[in-house]
Specification:
Helices cover about 40% and strands about 10% of the residues. The protein is α/β, with parallel strands linked by helices and about 375 residues long. The two termini are about 25 Å apart.
């Protein structure tokens, strides 16, 4: 079949996130989140990586999320501009700490719920479909300080309570949902990805993959809850995408690229297929990881997502001996420079065909609708 145009109902739009846009970081009853603690400047990467703890704000640092673009106060004019551009979908996120400022309360913040109802109603006024992420790099800081964030299994309870609150409060306004933004970034930027801060004695790989298990169980439970609240709800997962190319046709380089792809796709393999992939057992053994699970976790994971979403910034290159002197700049996901494509001033490869390659790989692997 030859397709020369996009089908009716195809969703065209744009995206932002609460932490990138809203500002008003302590207004409306909102609590502090992880992203509110990440400064601009020389300490930024160490904080993102969980290597330099940030439990309190410092007066000598600038925090971009605190003001952002002031979407909190200007959302009506911003959404009107989106409508003027012809958007039919608007991907955004709910700030967890606007709904539960501390994260472990039993009662949600009514002012936060009212704000998002207003935002989604404004979208509907222009015929724009909201696509809403529940957790876009903004774990409430109280949960980081008191529980260690996602290294603690109690987070599953807190997240699913928050998710149910959102599904019920915005039922009829939102039908497309994502659980965790770029869930694989947990491995590459642990504090921004999952609120993880490391001690010197930590086995970092153990901590990251145990946190990943908790997030995967929480995501599957949220998916189940969304379908119970309204069977019309569609829930997706979200990956920081972009295939790894082998640096050469040397078999060791091809294997290295496959391993790097598996590292990123591990999460989506679970969320889209409903079980840990077979390669995970070897991966955990090689990294000295022992996942602590509870009876019933395997059954919970069978609540698979309805669609797969991903971001695409650049393709990547991998070799058997990743050469630090040849790595691309400005990436938390390490890559070799690709000599066959141009790079942006920021150091990211400009690779439109790489997007097509990624889309084909993702659909071949999961056979689920894709959302870019």
């Amino acid at each position: 079949m030859s397709v020369s145009q996009f089908p009716d109902g195809f969703l065209w739009g744009g995206a932002l996130a609460a932490n990138q846009a809203e500002g008003a970081y302590l207004e409306g009853g909102k609590g502090l989140t992880t992203v509110d603690m990440i400064p601009h400047g020389s300490h930024r990467m160490a904080v993102k990586l969980g290597l330099e703890p940030r439990f309190t704000l410092r007066e000598d640092e600038f925090y971009p999320s605190h003001d952002a673009i002031d979407f909190y106060h200007r959302y009506k004019e911003d959404i009107a501009l989106m409508a003027e551009m012809g958007f039919t979908v608007f991907r955004t996120s709910i700030a967890w700490s606007r709904i539960y400022p501390q994260g472990d309360e039993l009662t949600p913040n009514a002012e936060g719920i009212a704000f998002y109802r207003d935002v989604f109603n404004e979208c509907k006024k222009y015929g724009i479909e909201p696509l809403v992420t529940l957790c876009h790099f903004d774990v409430p800081m109280h949960l980081v300080r008191e529980y260690g964030s996602w290294r603690n299994r109690k987070m599953i309870e807190f997240f699913t309570r928050y998710a149910r609150t959102c599904f019920e409060a915005f039922n009829g306004l939102v039908k497309y949902w994502l659980t965790f933004n770029e869930i694989n970034i947990l491995l590459h930027s642990p504090f921004s990805g999952a609120g993880l801060v490391f001690d010197e004695q930590d086995n970092k790989e153990q901590v990251k993959y145990q946190a990943a298990h908790h997030e995967l169980v929480a995501s599957a439970l949220a998916t189940k809850i969304a379908h119970e609240v309204n069977p019309a709800n569609q829930v997706g997962c979200m990956l920081a995408g972009g295939n790894f190319y082998p640096w050469s046709c040397k078999p060791e380089d091809v294997w290295a690229a496959l391993e790097k792809d598996r590292e990123n796709l591990f999460f989506i393999d679970v969320q889209a297929r409903g079980a840990y992939p077979s390669y995970a057992a070897r991966l955990f053994q090689e990294k000295g990881i022992s996942i602590v699970s509870e009876p019933g976790d395997s059954e919970i994971l069978k609540n698979t997502v309805d669609f797969v979403s991903f971001s695409y910034y650049a393709s990547r290159c991998a070799s058997a001996d990743m050469n630090e002197g040849n790595s691309s700049a400005a990436n938390v996901v390490k890559s070799l420079k690709n000599p066959y494509i141009q790079a942006s001033e920021w150091g990211w490869g400009i690779d439109p065909l790489g997007l097509r390659i990624t889309m084909n790989m993702m659909y071949d692997r999961y056979q689920k609708p894709l959302f870019l």
